[in-house]
Hints:
This protein has one domain (2-152): Uncharacterised protein YcnI-like PF07987, DUF1775 (Immunoglobulin-like). It is mostly beta strands. It has one helix at 2-20; strands spanning 23-25, 29-30, 35-42, 51-57, 63-67, 74-88, 91-107, 113-120, 128-130, 133-137, 140-144, 163-166. The radius of gyration is 18 Å and the shape is globular. It binds copper (II) ion. The site of copper (II) ion has 5 residues, from loops.
Amino acid sequence: MLIRSIIGLAVITQIAGHASAHVVFNVDEAEPGTFHTAQLRVMHGCEGQPTDHVRIVMPDGVTRVTPRVVPGWDISVEMRTLDEPILLHGFEVKQVVGALIWSGGSFPDFAYEQFEFRAMLPDDSGRRLDFVVNQGCGDLRLDWDDIAAPDADPWALEEPAPYITLTSKNGD
Ligand SMILES: [Cu+2]
């Protein structure tokens, strides 16, 4: 009886914790048109399995992306070709970082790990930047790619893409 109720409690705690945990940015607001250090927290594994692969897709308008090394993990970069070239440092650029991938490391389901990058954010106050994340755990994967309508709550979705909202301090 006692064992059964402890298990019951653990299951309830896990479900409740799951809705609020997921894959989230440490800070979910940023100043538009600035360099920003984004820290993505991966709060659990896939169905109890340890995480060994994290891919973060950069939304449109995010440029000059530099990933941070996570000890014990390899980093690779996927480039994306732009429809319209952009100017960076006065030079025309046709390719930007499309996604960052950390692989080769591992952390258990009960722990979290943080994946960090710096990027220039678009000067687009009020916009919510949705970052699709693909999480891999051996043969299992979780795709955090549910994107809410602009004024809807992403956390109401089953596998929400983590986001950063561009909020100007001047209120414009
Ligand atoms: Cu979760």
